[in-house]
Amino acid sequence: MMQQSRSNSYLFGGNAPYVEELYEAYLDNPGSVPEQWRDYFDALQHVPAVDGTDGRDVAHAPVVESFAQRAKSNAFAVKASSTDLAVARKQVHVQSLIAAYRNVGARWADLDPLKRTERPKIPELEPAFYDLSESDMDITFSAANTYFGKENMSLRDMLQALRETYCGTIGAEFNHITDQTQKRWWQQKLEGIRSKPAFNASQKKHILDRLTAAEGLERYLHTKYVGQKRFSLEGGESFIAAMDALIQQAGEKGVQEIVIGMAHRGRLNVLVNTLGKMPKDLFAEFDHTAPEDLPAGDVKYHQGFSSDISTIGGPVHLSLAFNPSHLEIVNPVVEGSVRARMDRRGDKQGAQVLPVLVHGDSAFGGQGVNQETLMLSETRGYSTGGTVHLIINNQIGFTTSDPRDLRSTLYCTDIVKMVESPVLHVNGDDPEAVVLATQLALEFRMTFRKDVVVDIICFRKLGHNEQDTPALTQPLMYKKIAAHPGTRRLYADKLATQGLGDTLGDDMVKAYRAAMDEGRHTVDPVISNFKSKYAVDWSPFVGKKWTDAADTAIPLTEWKRLSERLTTFPASVNLHPLVKKVYDDRAAMGRGDVNVDWGMGEHMAFASLVASGYAVRLSGEDCGRGTFTHRHAVIHDQKREKWDEGTYVPLEHVADNQAPFVVIDSILSEEAVLGFEYGYAGSEPNALVIWEAQFGDFANGAQVVIDQFIASGEVKWGRANGLVMMLPHGYEGQGPEHSSARLERFMQLAADNNMQIVQPTTASQIFHVLRRQVVRQFRKPLVIMTPKSLLRNKEATSPLADFTKGGFQTVIPEQNDTIAADKVKRVICCSGKVYYDLVKKREDKKAYDTAIIRVEQLYPFPHKAFAAELKKYPNVTDIVWCQDEPQNQGAWFFVQHYIHENMLDGQKLGYAGRAPSASPAVGYAHLHQEQQKALLDQAFAKLKGFVLTK
């Protein structure tokens, strides 16, 4: 006991200030204090402090007081000698030095291949910062808190080990992670090898082979296709070696599919040297002799590709996602595609499917979609088990290289710290370090299922594209680049000095050039004719038309069975009274006692689909309940005691062997979530995949996804997609931002039968259109302008018979049977909520010489059905298109041509609606009402203004 007392006494008694300092260091980072002290402080967490609180949360003074009180006990009564205290202080300072290297060592790492600036002075990395001098260098200190393989080390050896580990060509950032297991994992991995790989001769030659391929393709193209854009990888060739290592190691760890997203830089190189695209096929695209079988097509550095590569663990399927010029927008699309593949395999953790995202440095930190995608990464509905991010960091960001203009953070990767992802910065001129960093990143991802980043710091030998002259704005940088021999040459020379062959590098260059001349594969081995059992067959959806019939009605017996399952709850589920009323009403609808409302129509569409084997995935902000509280797909037990328990989803219990129904309340994001769902739908054609905007105008925040994927993905890339967008739309007096889903934008994007745009007005219509989307073997995006007030409007309900027969009506005829067709002089055409306003207005005016036709499908326009309706009224002279939206918005400018095409000779077409406006709607309720009354009056008044005559 006396010996134990002597070894610990310097912690107590008169050394309270020192104890406080030590304890403060422990609170900041438990790993920064010696193990025996850490154990003591850990134990303290379970001992009540002087004031009776948990020790971890008390102020420092009471903690020190508690130490002092314990020091008075017999067990700790011996006072420390000054020598003991001095040694203890030095040990703490050594621990602080270790912690500093783990924290900020990356800032002093050798990372810039161009060496444009001197390494910065980091005082925290110098022993003097901790009152350690040259006289302390040969003193032996405890190294028990490190993984250098020694219990004790001299300060000199300790400092060398720290600098080799954290300040070499790999700079690691992981101390921002709060999970101690993850932090110690990195400490062990890096310190155990001092961040130095130990590749054998064969592995080194393979790395050189990949560098040779990367450089060889770029130089071949630069010679053969002078001045043509290709967004060269020269200066960042180590990236190809990293991709090769990633794929091979992933296969060894059981990964069977890798989905890759990347922008332009190096994309052609990845296509040829990673995925194994035949060089001759790439050359054909440069020569403009490639087959052009798409309505629009796209440039070669936007193209996707897929192949199967042999690895030690078996075949790995690689998919490079098609990507537009909006750089990072492909990232959530890739994540959605990965999630779909995981779900198909039943891969809950991402053990078999891996997302890999390749970024540019400026785009990674600069484009908000990355922050949104990162925020999705660990949520239940969007997690993909961690993504490996590779950054081709050419240090310039388009044409900017002045650090004052690049970003507002130290590193371009700092955004990932918000999800506590580790980052490995690595010098691109050390390809072995690049490969090691990539291997460690993948191992971390597979171990902890979290995102991880490898920041390959390199340079860009040519301009942003091959027609650019970067020296115009960056003369100093490009002088350095001009003098750089190239990563491949540097590494070949290094291997020559290691005795691996003086001509090895030149021999590889000649061999690669020969392969290029012959147009042969440069990836060995690419597997031909391999098809995984999890591959999706899109052939049933090829060549189909939107007019193809679809049987969307369900038998009455099935309707009643499903509705009973939907509205029957376990006794343990305690419903809110308002929700109970909703489901009691739905039970009555299921029996046919009352008409079916919108929420029940939706639910029965979903129920009938999952019962038939079609999965349903519905996501968006507040879509479980529904923004307008009409859905209630998720029931929250009112007596639950834990936040993560007590929810019940009726649609998960409609059949014994049903397909999955998934409903997700997303984070407050539109762009990333819509991109994710587009990616999911593009990889799973046999599911109904829906994104719902909280208000239709929220789609504004996802316009890039709409423009560059949803509207044009098929004509550019041949990629079919059955995604559904539900966009609440309707003029209810709620102001400019919550009225319009910008119908006109979708109409403007509509061409080549690229999408379907509908505005259903009854419960049966939403039922049939949702079922039609998957029952019919036709896969095009479906945009639904969903209502707000109609969700509870009794006029918009439907009798049960409308669900057990019939289907989606692209045009709904006049519904008043008392109107005589030969007496009709005017036909009002409309779409959406305004129909019900028009019917009421007609009744008020007794205008029974007017028929009202609803166009429920605005695109592709249903010419045949619409013309048939017009022909019912042979004496019509005036046709009016009426809409809620301002004249320069809504459907008017687009449907007028369709209507005109189907008019008879002598008929005139006019417009009734709001005047043109720069805003979607007015913000004053009284003005809204005035406008609404005026447009309804106009619909029945004499035609004036712009009139089209047949």
Could you describe the 3D structure shown?
This protein is of the alpha/beta class and 950 residues long. It folds into 4 domains: 2-193, no CATH class; 206-527, Rossmann fold (3-Layer(aba) Sandwich), CATH 3.40.50; 556-804, Rossmann fold; 813-949, Rossmann fold (3-Layer(aba) Sandwich), CATH 3.40.50.11610. Helices cover 39% and strands 13% of the residues. The protein is built from 32 helices and 26 strands. It has a 9-stranded mixed β-sheet with strand order 3-9-10-8-7-4-6-5-11. Helix 31 (892-902) links the parallel strand 24 and strand 25 (908-914). Helix 12 (330-345) packs across helix 23 (671-683). The longest helix is centred in the first third of the chain and has 24 residues, at 201-224. The chain is globular. The termini are far apart. Mean pLDDT is 90; it is low at 1-16, 47-59 and 71-80.
